[in-house]
Amino acid sequence: MNLLTRYWSDFTALLFPHLCPACGEALVANEHVICTDCRYSLPFTNFHLQPENVVAQQFWGKLNIEAAYAMYYFSKGGKVQNLLHHLKYKNMPQIGNVLGVMAGDQLTKNDRFKHIDLIIPVPLHKRRMRERGYNQSAQFAQGLAERLNVSVLENNLIRTINTATQTHKSRFARFENMKEVFSVSKPGELTGKHILLVDDTVTTGSTLEACGIELLKIEGAKLSIATIAYAE
Fold first, then answer.
1. Strands 157-159, 182-184: parallel, antiparallel or unpaired by DSSP?
2. Which domain holds residue 34?
3. Is there a single domain that holds both residue 129 and residue 224?
4. Domain Phosphoribosyltransferase: where (predicted)?
5. Are residues 48 and 17 in the same domain?
């Protein structure tokens, strides 16, 4: 970058600063998408170091999973909620990519995630996909794939019904709402594969459970789960 270009870049940054979507502070030189302070101070769960973490426990007796993980704790009004809001509703898919790379760096240190064959993001219904323009879980999956050195497979696990929001539903109601919502279009592609199923947030686990039920119908399939955040 020559001197004139640098001056112009600094000038435009003063007028139109790029803000960290977690804390709202202006990004400085060499900071990308999320500021350095937030990258290190957000509430990490360290679930990659805890085989029997609370996310894994949610699926005990429901899904036969190999491993489960969420990178952050989610709290209302917190920085992680800000990140997810910008990812989903503010046209910032790059947040998902960055968080995926960060999560992938953690998972490469865990033997339980070293034998993943492919990554499948929880799909959006086609109508919501048209409205948003991208699937936030797929963006997270792409960042994970970069670090885990595997492929992301979209358009095989399909969302056939556009369900209502899950926010105010009980766990039972959430699961009932997700029954028969997902299907696998090409099970042969997944035969004998260890699949990493990813989503943005896990609360009750009903969406991931519904997806996992369909994926584990495939002969020889194994399943692990990873999300950006865990909300109690």
1. antiparallel
2. 1-41
3. yes
4. 137-229
5. no
**How are beta strands 68-74 and 118-121 bridged, if at all?**
unpaired
Amino acid at 13: A
Question: Which CATH number belongs to the domain containing residue 153 in this structure?
Answer: 3.40.50.2020
Domain total in the chain: 2
Provide DSSP, 37-68.
Answer: HHHHHS-B--GGG-TT-HHHHHTTTT---S-E
What is the CB neighbour count within 10 angstroms for residue 32?
Answer: 11
121 and 27 both lie in a single domain:
no
d(CA 180, CA 46): 33
Q: Examine the domain organization and report whether 62 and 34 are in the same domain.
A: no
- The whole-chain average pLDDT of the chain stands at 90
Q: Residue 155 — left, alpha, or beta (φ > 0 → left; ψ -120 to 50 → alpha)?
A: left
pTM above 0.85, yes or no: yes
Give residue 232's pLDDT. Answer: 83
pLDDT in tens, 209-222: 999 999 999 999 99
Q: Write out pLDDT tens, residues 90-137.
A: 999 999 999 999 999 999 999 999 899 999 999 998 899 999 999 999
Determine phi and psi for 170, rounding to 5 degrees: -70, 170
* pLDDT < 50 stretches in the chain: 1, 3, 6-16, 166
Residues 6 or more apart whose Cβ sits within 8 Å of residue 163? 125, 177, 178, 181
CA distances from 33 to 7, 20, 24, 138, 200 (A): 21, 6, 11, 18, 17
